[in-house]
What we know:
The chain is mainly alpha-helical.
Amino acid sequence: MEITNLLQELLKGLSGFTIGNAIMMLIGGILILLAVVKEYEPVLLLPIGFGCLLANIPATGMDNPGGLFDVLYKAGISTELFPLLIFVGVGAMIDFSPLLAQPKMVLLGAAGQFGIFGTMMLATLIGFNLNEAASIGIIGAIDGPTSIFVATKLAPHLLAPIAVAAYSYMSLVPIIQPPLMRLLTTKAERRVRMVYAPRPISKRTRVLFPIVVTLVVGLLTPDATPLISMLMLGNLLRESGVVERLNKAAQNEIANIATLFLGLTIGSTMNAHSFLNWQTIQIMILGLLAFGLDTVAGLLFGKLMCFVTRGEINPLIGAAGISAFPMAGRLAARVAQDEDFENFILMHAMGANTAGQLGSVMAGGVLLAIMLAMA
Length: 375
């Protein structure tokens, strides 16, 4: 009897193993492969993939009350702590000077959020409720922390596919955006050279900016305050110049630890039961559509600005109006240089990209305000 019990204990993992677990382990392995071999967002895809592997080993007890995953989820996801800590680090890395020197780039940051609301309406038409549709639409911002923050509040049961979609598409920005850029712009438009003669941005302005943005956004869309305040806190640490230790810690240790545990926890929610279904496939498709619509809207608005200014704006910077900072800005500049090696639009693209970062947070706050008001 003792030997039988021992064998049952040793084999309980195998006895509970299903084809679904095997498929999810394969997906986890693919995420790890993309991180290691292709270096697609390895800081996120690697822990997500490993967490997915662990989540599909039966009978570990890690997701039971008091288990590792249960503790991490309650401490960092349910409380929104992990995405907020990451935003402190993101804010510490962002230089808003290109945006402050070119305030008109705010328009491109706003245009780059169109896909969020367009996809939200489409999601409701195919059967998702409003909270779920809003959480799916925010994937289009290509802003992982914002997507997680909104999904946790509105549709926590969809957190895993939404988070995986947001971070996967973030890693695929260099693959998805260039074909759209070339499809929607002419060779002549991509070769447009933009004059960059920035006016000096004083330290006083750079210090006041995060404070003013926090107050204005907080008063207009209170539900966005947690995200925008942590983003601006990180930027204030950077621009104040008096807390270099905290600035470096926000960019490195704090952001790295929060990202590690966030990725692992998100991966732990990717079990076969909750992930392998038609709804997940729909979310991945809708998220890709939202990303594409955001890029298209930004490019079209960039073309409009090019027309209105009689060729002074390169439409490519419109694609940087999404929130994938700094990847989208660098990509727009690279595509321009592919057409004309001496065409330097990086600072303009970064202005649009930082505007997109702010725009995604505002869009998330607006969605939360609308959905919570209707509840």
